[in-house]
Specification:
The protein has 384 residues and is of the alpha/beta class. It is 36% helix and 12% strand. It contains 13 helices and 12 strands. The chain binds pyridoxal-5'-phosphate.
Length: 384
């Protein structure tokens, strides 16, 4: 493996992680739903004002729980952006749904709400907006379309914890929403996630599905005198050791977000003119969106230009990476009818997008090296 002077991601610590893990161990409760799970979920519930948050082993698992909770049946259609991580679709496909791929807006790279309604059919059961890079999708239009057609919204908010759309936290629009605490996210515990239950009608069943189909959560609260198998389900609880790590991160959420804002602003300020000069796109943040400062990306002029820039930065010890490949053109996507030109913006952007190193502890001097590395690049497509 190549060692990079400036990696793409480096999971940083707030300093309390090991201490809290030790506390979880000394409490003698390191399976799921111990004190640190409680503390972590409470932070999200209180800040976002969500009726209930359940920590899960990943965002993928939170999405799977969501699919079970809204009762997806074989043949149901679920609208997902083509420009997303595979789990956004796969969690629903796993229980028989057919993904319907939506294209994205060229500015925010979020699901294009103007082209959404044409994808709705009588079989549409859910829409899964992804707040790409933690910038809110156009939730007014998406909620309006969902409400008028009686369709559930499950927000895939893997990138967007603490971001807002029109002053309202991302993750609070859908009946259900999901978070990721994978080590590449703003807050992490290695692998982890959460399900946000905005509609309280799902709370009881969500607890059961997450606990192997048993009412063990009610038993631990003393609400039943024994627990047993009451529904389908699986095991979606993270160990309290992971929750202890996560709590060390979440309790510092404001300072982490302040750091990330600074990192994002530094890139933006120093790359803006250079980007304009070379016809390169940088993220668009609509004025009504408070982003979560999850990533900083560039949109180059061509695949060749992007690959040349990746190599150029690599030679300077800097790792920059591309992102999603269009889901509708993947092997599975084609199996569901995906074809070239179905989602032209996705197809166009995915070849040209490049993410810059972005982690909580990146220093200004490291960012300055990335910026000068970019500015030294001279492999532009001359035909532009
Ligand atoms: C939009 C989106 N959804 C879901 C996931 C899956 O998250 P996890 O690794 O926590 O399962 C990712 C992963 O990066 C993602 O980018």
């Amino acid at each position: 493996m190549t060692a990079f002077t400036i990696p793409f991601n480096k999971p940083g610590l707030t300093g309390k992680e090991l201490d809290y893990i030790a506390q979880a161990i000394s409490c003698g409760h390191i399976s799921g739903d111990g004190i640190f799970t409680e503390k972590s979920r409470t932070i999200i519930e209180q800040v976002l004002k969500v009726p209930r948050v359940l920590l899960t082993t990943s965002c993928t698992h939170a999405l799977e729980l969501a699919a079970l909770l809204i009762n997806i049946q074989p043949g149901d259609e679920v609208i997902v952006p083509s420009f997303t991580f595979v789990s956004t679709a796969n969690a629903f496909v796993l229980i028989g749904a057919r993904p319907v791929f939506a294209d994205i807006r060229p500015d925010t790279l979020n699901l294009d709400e103007a082209r959404l309604e044409e994808l709705v059919t009588p079989r549409t059961k859910a829409i899964v907006p992804v707040h790409y890079a933690g910038v809110g999708c156009e939730m007014d239009s998406i909620c309006d379309i969902a409400n008028r057609n009686g369709i559930h919204i499950v927000e895939d908010n893997a990138h967007g914890l603490f971001g807002k759309y029109k002053g309202r936290y991302l993750g609070t629009f859908g009946c259900l929403a999901t978070q990721s605490f994978h080590e590449t996210k703003n807050f992490y515990c290695g692998e982890g996630g959460a399900l946000l239950l905005n509609d309280p009608q799902y709370i009881d069943r969500a607890e059961i599905l997450r606990e192997k189909g048993t009412n063990r959560s009610r038993f631990f609260r003393g609400q039943v005198d024994k627990y047993s198998w009451v529904d389908k389900g699986s095991s979606y609880l993270p160990s309290d050791m992971l929750a202890a790590f996560l709590f060390a991160q979440l309790e510092c959420w404001e300072s982490i977000q302040t750091k990330r804002k600074h990192i994002w602003d530094y890139y933006s300020e120093h790359l803006q003119d250079w980007a304009k000069e070379h016809n390169i796109g940088i993220p668009t943040i609509p004025p009504h969106c408070d982003q979560s400062y999850h990533m900083f990306y560039l949109i180059l002029n061509s695949l060749e230009e992007r690959q040349a820039l990746i190599e150029h930065l690599k030679a300077r010890g800097i790792l920059s990476v591309f992102h999603y490949q269009p889901l509708h053109l993947s092997e599975m996507g084609r199996h569901f009818g995906g074809e070239n030109y179905h989602c032209p913006v996705t197809e166009n952007v995915s070849d040209r997008l490049l993410r810059l190193p972005f982690y909580n502890d990146i220093t200004e001097s490291e960012q300055a090296q990335v910026i000068s590395g970019l500015k030294e690049f001279d492999g532009w497509n001359t035909e532009r």
